[in-house]
């Protein structure tokens, strides 16, 4: 009893097993009882159906039943027969009825003559039917069969049935016996479970499942975590258990447990000691290249199976500790040097070369870097594309490895192919035995092995989810192959280099985008014009893309505008800002504004750009944007110049002398609040005007004054043509690539001759229009442009008429023969005409419309003392 109480007490495994067994037996008994009762009841009900059907069919087919149904009083004949048959057949009722369901017989006479309760249709159709219903005597099982005449006609019905109370009686009588048997079975099962639980209590020492699980986990963790090998051997010499350290120290096979120690391939001395089970204390045994100290004790105690426990301790670790510390220090130094020495530039190829130069010979005898072609150009790597050998370093130059620049497609079975596919490093300790590696190139693989390269590590160059390429480390001088520690070092080394290579790739991509943007924004071809002979140079910075720009813009009256500007900074922002400023100058120049007014509008635009960008994203303003704008008139040979924070232009006179004209220096664009001034220069024909950006004369090592002196000297010895001037200036300036962009324009002036210009004053008299037409006709005839006489007369008639009617005196007309025929009408009014559609009732308003239709271009140019309305026609 005491043992049973101990089993039932507490939360031990034994108690839980006992309760579980009792509950299972109880559930089985209950299920068996329920199943038995249900089966008995089912069988009894089926028996009642069969009996009811048999009794009903027997009575229906009995002799005299048909005659009784046809008699005048069927009840008198059939009631005694039915009751006698009911008592004899042990059913609860036999009812005979006509085809309408009116009873002729019933155990209770008061029910005779009443309607039968049940289903009659199948029986009327000639088929017997059995059913469970609630009738006049309660729930019952009944059968209804037809009574058929000799001709098959149904002349009546007979029903026999048994009530549910009588049906279940048999099951109820059997239930006590069933329950008694179940109780006995439960009692026997409980006693058996108690015996089993008592034995289990002794085995588990009363521990609960959580305590046992925790004890096992602690035991397993301690056993496999200790730095000593542990082996348990039974008294027959069979190895029962070996922890991880024992497997490592003895190089045991994976299936060592369960095998005899003499069959494990151990050295004889160690195997004999473990099989003997004798006591040993710190016996030293040599196993491979290790010295193991072995301690062994027997486990033969009361209640413990006989056998022995042996512990192994590696005594060579202390000797190797100092060497390992030195190796670790060298590897840390290598990783530090990698962080400092790899990625010194934003060049993908150079970064790959720095990785290979660092690894050889400190880590490997040869190192190679293979990158996808798209990575070299700054794009996203394509796993299906070929790779290019980007860098190769080695202790010798004659290794039979792929040369730099070769395109390679690694097969899937090669270490490089597996690294690219899985994104994990691969160690091939012995290349001569690696068939998958040799499948890459059988001939070259044989040459590599013959050369002496015997071990390989491949590591993918990963940058986030992108694999940029693969790095291979080859060993030939050191006889030992690469090991797992060196594999981890190679992975860390490549991981650091991958960050730098990816940064260089991203920079290359951004630089390419910025260069593309900048080149698309700079002028590709200079417009055709005869006022200036122009040569130009644009040199991008050594690193990055700047915001230097230039342009040549033809204006009305054969004039030409030269513009050069600089947005301080590099990158996409500077290039995009440069494009916006160049577009703005194009638009403003179409208004024929003086240089100082155009610079003022540009200054206001930069201020708005700064304000909008600062409010939206907090970006820095466009500080340091400069511009120089010059307009040259080949008729007067005058050049009007204005600048905003830009270096002054240089002027080379026809005699070769050089000067820097005094052009007022306005503030850089975007500062606002200060006016801009212009300088007007009269240039002799053949003079060369030199416009440039500050990258030509200024850098970090040289002051701008020194740069201007150098520029003056170079211009003094330059040839006469603008091309020679550009070449001389850049050859003298660029001993190395500049850190800033350089834009240079050299424009040699030309002048329209007196024969190309015709000018007439116009009196304030409408009759003067005819005189102007006549004078123009004569001059066009002299120029051989008779084809343009009619249109020119019409254009000048309308322009002069408008000047006389709406302008103010003095009025004069000028006609220029340049690349086009240009007609200009000057007056003192500042009112600008507007093109419009005249209605049918308007007397005027059609003249300017005709001018616009006849001329290729027309417009208005404002002067300090009035305006000019001009129109251009192409020469035939």
Automatic annotation (TrEMBL):
* Matches recorded under Gene3D superfamilies: 3.30.450.40, Histidine kinase-like ATPase, C-terminal domain (3.30.565.10), PAS domain (3.30.450.20), PPM-type phosphatase domain (3.60.40.10)
SUPFAM superfamilies on file:
ATPase domain of HSP90 chaperone/DNA topoisomerase II/histidine kinase (SSF55874), GAF domain-like (SSF55781), PP2C-like (SSF81606), Sensory domain-like (SSF103190)
Pfam families for the chain? GAF_2, HATPase_c_2, sCache_3_2, SpoIIE
The alphabetized UniProt keywords are:
Cell membrane, Hydrolase, Membrane, Transmembrane, Transmembrane helix
InterPro entries, A to Z: Bact_Sigma-Reg (IPR052016), GAF (IPR003018), GAF-like_dom_sf (IPR029016), HATPase_C_sf (IPR036890), HATPase_dom (IPR003594), PPM-type-like_dom_sf (IPR036457), PPM-type_phosphatase-like_dom (IPR001932), sCache_3 (IPR033463)
Species annotation: Streptomyces azureus
**SMART domains, alphabetized:** GAF, PP2C_SIG
- Name the membrane topology term: Multi-pass membrane protein
Q: Which GO terms describe its molecular function?
A: phosphatase activity
Which ranges carry the PPM-type phosphatase domain? 529-749
Q: Where is the protein localized?
A: Cell membrane
**Chain ranges of the GAF domain:** 347-511
What residues form the membrane-spanning segments? 17-38, 177-196
- Name recorded for this polypeptide: Magnesium or manganese-dependent protein phosphatase
A cellular component annotation (GO) from this entry:
plasma membrane
């Amino acid at each position: 009893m005491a043992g049973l109480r101990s089993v039932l007490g507490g939360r031990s495994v034994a108690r839980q097993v006992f309760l579980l067994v009792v509950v299972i037996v109880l559930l089985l008994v209950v299920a068996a009882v329920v199943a038995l009762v249900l089966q008995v009841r089912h069988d009894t009900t089926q028996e009642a159906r069969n009996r009811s059907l048999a009794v009903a069919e027997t009575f229906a087919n009995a002799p005299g039943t048909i005659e009784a149904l046809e008699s005048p009083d069927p009840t008198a004949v059939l009631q005694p027969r039915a009751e006698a048959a009911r008592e004899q057949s042990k059913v609860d009722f036999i009812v005979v009825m006509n085809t309408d369901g009116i009873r002729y017989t019933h155990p209770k006479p008061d029910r005779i003559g009443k309607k039968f309760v049940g289903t009659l249709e199948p029986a009327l159709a000639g088929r017997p039917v059995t059913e469970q219903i609630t009738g006049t005597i309660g729930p019952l099982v009944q059968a209804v069969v037809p009574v058929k005449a000799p001709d098959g006609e149904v002349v009546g019905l007979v029903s026999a049935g048994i009530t549910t109370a009588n049906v279940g009686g048999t099951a109820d009588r059997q239930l006590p016996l069933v329950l008694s048997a179940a109780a006995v079975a439960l009692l026997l099962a409980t006693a058996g479970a108690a015996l089993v639980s008592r034995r289990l209590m002794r085995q588990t020492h009363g521990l609960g499942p959580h305590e046992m699980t925790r004890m096992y986990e602690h035991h397993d963790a301690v056993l496999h975590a200790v730095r000593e090998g542990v082996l348990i051997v039974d008294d027959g010499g069979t190895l029962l258990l070996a922890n991880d350290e024992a497997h490592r120290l003895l190089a045991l096979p994976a299936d060592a447990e369960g095998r005899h120690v003499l069959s494990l391939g151990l050295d004889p001395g160690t195997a004999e000691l473990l099989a003997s089970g004798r006591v040993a204390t710190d016996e030293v045994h040599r196993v491979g290249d290790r010295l193991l100290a072995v301690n062994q004790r027997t486990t033969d105690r009361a209640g413990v199976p006989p056998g022995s426990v042996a512990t192994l301790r590696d005594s060579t670790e202390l000797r190797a500790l100092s060497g390992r510390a030195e190796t670790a220090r060298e590897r840390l130094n290598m990783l530090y040097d990698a962080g400092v020495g790899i990625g010194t530039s934003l060049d993908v190829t150079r970064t790959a070369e720095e990785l290979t130069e660092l690894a050889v010979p400190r880590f490997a005898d040869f190192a190679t870097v293979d990158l996808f072609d798209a990575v070299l150009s700054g794009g996203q790597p394509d796993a299906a594309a070929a790779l290019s050998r980007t860098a190769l370093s080695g202790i010798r130059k004659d290794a039979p490895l792929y040369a730099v620049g070769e395109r390679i497609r690694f097969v899937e079975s090669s270490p490089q192919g597996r690294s690219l596919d899985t994104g994990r490093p691969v160690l091939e300790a012995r290349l001569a035995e690696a068939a998958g590696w040799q499948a890459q190139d059988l001939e070259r693989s044989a040459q590599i092995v013959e050369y002496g390269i015997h071990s390989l590590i491949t590591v993918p160059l990963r940058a986030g989810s992108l694999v940029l390429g693969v790095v291979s480390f080859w060993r030939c001088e050191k006889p030992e192959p690469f090991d797992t520690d060196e594999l981890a070092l190679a992975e860390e080394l490549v991981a650091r280099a991958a960050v730098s290579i990816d940064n260089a790739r991203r920079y290359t991509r951004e630089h390419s985008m910025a260069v593309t943007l900048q080149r698309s924004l700079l002028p590709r071809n200079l417009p055709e014009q005869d006022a200036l002979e122009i040569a130009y140079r644009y040199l991008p910075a050594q690193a990055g893309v700047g915001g230097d720009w230039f342009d040549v813009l033809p204006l009305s009256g054969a004039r030409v505008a030269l513009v050069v500007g600089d947005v301080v900074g590099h990158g996409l922002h500077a290039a995009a800002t440069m494009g916006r400023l160049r577009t703005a100058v194009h638009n403003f120049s179409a208004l024929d504004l003086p240089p100082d007014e155009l610079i003022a509008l540009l200054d206001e635009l930069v201020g708005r750009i700064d304000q909008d960008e600062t409010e939206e994203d907090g970006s820095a303003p466009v500080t340091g944007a400069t511009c120089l704008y010059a307009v040259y008139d080949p008729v007067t040979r005058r050049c009007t110049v204005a600048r905003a924070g830009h270096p002054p232009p240089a002027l080379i006179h026809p005699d070769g002398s050089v000067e820097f004209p005094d052009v007022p220096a306005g503030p850089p664009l975007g500062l606002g609040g200060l006016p801009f001034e212009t300088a007007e220069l009269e240039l002799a024909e053949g003079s060369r005007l030199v416009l440039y950006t500050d990258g030509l004369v200024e850098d970090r090592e040289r002051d701008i004054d020194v740069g201007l002196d150098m520029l003056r000297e170079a211009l003094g010895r330059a040839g006469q043509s603008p091309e020679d001037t550009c070449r001389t200036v850049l050859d003298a300036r660029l001993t190395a690539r500049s850190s800033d962009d350089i834009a240079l324009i050299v424009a040699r002036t030309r002048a329209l001759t007196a024969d190309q210009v015709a000018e007439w004053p116009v009196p304030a008299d409408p009759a003067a229009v005819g005189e102007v037409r006549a004078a123009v006709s004569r001059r066009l005839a002299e120029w051989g442009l008779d084809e343009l006489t009619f249109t020119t007369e019409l254009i000048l008639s309308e322009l002069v008429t408008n000047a006389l009617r709406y302008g103010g005196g003095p009025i004069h007309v000028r006609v220029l023969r340049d690349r086009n025929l240009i007609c200009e009408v000057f007056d003192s009014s500042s009112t600008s005409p507007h093109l419009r559609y005249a209605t049918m009732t308007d007397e005027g308003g059609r003249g300017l419309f005709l001018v616009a239709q006849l001329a290729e271009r027309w417009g208005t140019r404002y002067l300090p003392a009035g305006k000019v309305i001009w129109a251009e026609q192409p020469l035939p």
